[in-house]
Design brief:
It is a single chain. The protein is an alpha+beta fold and about 100 residues long. The chain contains three helices and five strands, in the order H-H-H-E-E-E-E-E.
Length: about 100
């Protein structure tokens, strides 16, 4: 009887095309174009960016690889020269940000 159990293991389902399932899931994701903010919204966002400081708790919505993502956390780094910040080691360029919520 033990022989039959070992033999059955070789017929278990397997992924014949390694990574194919992940590629299909990636393809099915909805693609968003980056939106252009209105002048008033850009001015408000610029004002908010000037308020930011390192170790400040924020929630940011930003554009990354054909989709919008939201991240919350403490700002690790602010670089006004190259116009980016990092939260939880995620580098976010100011030009990709569409919304900032400054928490306490």
């Amino acid at each position: 009887m033990l022989y039959n159990l070992d033999r059955a293991k070789q017929f278990l389902p397997m992924d014949a095309l390694k990574g194919f399932r992940e590629a299909l899931e990636e393809k099915e994701k909805e693609v968003f174009k980056k939106i252009d903010l209105l002048e008033d919204s850009e001015a408000y966002l610029s004002w908010q960016l000037n308020l930011l400081k390192v170790n400040m708790l924020v929630t940011i919505t930003y554009y990354k690889i054909n989709t919008y993502q939201k991240i919350s956390g403490w700002i690790n780094k602010l670089n006004y020269t190259y116009k980016y910040l990092t939260i939880n080691n995620e580098k976010i360029f100011f030009s990709d940000i569409i919304k900032i919520y400054i928490g306490e």
